[in-house]
Amino acid sequence: MAKLFENIQFDTLRLSNKIIIAPMCQYSATDQGEITYWHEQQWANYALSGAGLCIIEASAVQAAGRISYADVGLWNDNQRDQIKMLLNKIKHLSPVPFGIQLAHAGRKASTDKPWLGKGQIPPDHVHGWQTVAPSSIAFGEHDLAPHALTRDEIQQIQADFAASAVRAVEAGFKLIEIHAAHGYLLHQFLSPLSNLRDDEYGGSFENRIRMTLEVLQAVKAVVPEGFPVGVRISATDWMPTQSWDIESSVGLSQALEQLGAAYIHVSSGGLHVMQDIKVGANYQVPFAAQIKQNVSIPVIAVGLITEPDQAEAILQNDEADAIALARAMQYDPRWPWHAAAALGAEIEISPQYLRCQPHGLKQLFKAFSH
């Protein structure tokens, strides 16, 4: 059997294959952070994809933690209840489990929808607010400096991650991913480029990783025993010196494993406007491979993985334990079906689709029962 279609376990959650739909911001929520009809059709599409797991977009634990005013939130019960209703509908389409990525954008918050123009919206404008960060260092040269968080405010954010985690479980999600990548708040604490604090949350490596570790601990403390909580990280800032790098990521991953993280999801970049990313097929896979060599929990690779043979080779070469797809899945919502056909594997689909099995393939599709 192709490794891509083997089972994988994240704590007590067992996936039918190793294809994971990575979180992708849709910028389609209401001003109150509530899901809309866009999410209904999008999540249904994910459910019918045949993937082993879908992790929905970065969902803010505070209103000020949204990237934009159109981001999904999970900081109140109304948001939870609407998501719960949708997940209850989705589960009748397929057994694909859904997870959620909990996030805080920090200094990269208060922006417009990306297709309406980049840049930060000032706090005195509609849809704008004051951003926060570990230190008062703006992300872009035209951005306003963020407010440097106090210790009390740091503790409040940790409490809000935990409260959102409780809501995530109540809503019916089967997994939580903590977003510590792409230059958002937890990554801002990790990198010496954005964290110039002189207290217990800044300075040394041990101090800079403290916020991420404490958020994981806060979340783990409020979810059921065995409920999977993973962490997405940026393996490097793609900056030449004095930045977050792969060696730091290995150390962080080992510390996260010690605290019970279910997996490490390895991305990169997003912290600095001058980053120099060497983009290409598999460009982040070596980072995942290096982390995998140093931890025993599953490692997820992501980033310009677009072809079934490419994904299978990463697993065969023991460079990662699972494959996450983002843009490739947006472009081809039935990517797992096509991967199964290419690799000679079997995949479960809704019985309504059985008749579309490619001619000449006797057992590509098998139906699950609703």
Automatic annotation (TrEMBL):
Enzyme type, top EC level: oxidoreductase
Domain of life according to the entry: Bacteria
InterPro entries assigned to the protein according to its UniProt record, in alphabetical order: Aldolase_TIM (IPR013785), OxRdtase_FMN_N (IPR001155), YqjM-like (IPR044152)
Enzyme Commission number(s) from the entry: 1.-.-.-
Domain NADH:flavin oxidoreductase/NADH oxidase N-terminal: start-end pairs: 3-341
Cofactor: FMN
Pfam families: Oxidored_FMN
Keywords per UniProt: Flavoprotein, FMN, NADP, Oxidoreductase
GO molecular function: FMN binding; NADP binding; NADPH dehydrogenase activity
Keyword Transport among record annotations: no
Protein name: Putative FMN oxidoreductase
